[in-house]
Amino acid sequence: MTHPPCSKPAAARYPGVFGARLMKLREIASALGCRLEGDGDLDITGVSGMEHAGPGQLTFLANPKYARKVKDTKAAAILVQAPVPGMEIASLVTEDP
User: Fold this and answer.
1) How far is the CA of 1 from the CAs of 4, 9, 10, 37, 90, in angstroms?
2) Is the model's pLDDT at 15 over the cut of 70?
3) Contact at 8 Å (CB) between 79 and 34?
4) Partners of 46 in the beta sheet?
């Protein structure tokens, strides 16, 4: 089954969802009910997987067995169940990242 291409980019169809505005990390922490550890004034431009995230993006660590990959991410911040020891990355801490 194929779908016709969209006439508008995703950001135009879903304002506020796909990079339509910056959010401060503290705003995201508050909206998600997470504990913030680190710089809450970071501007977050989007979300991406750990290996593909760049500066200004939020990434996540859902499975602790991949914690060793955190040292290689270029993300500005990470959503985690517990802060990763020895890492200088802003963290949003929650029971279910």
Assistant:
1) 10, 21, 21, 45, 42
2) no
3) yes
4) 57
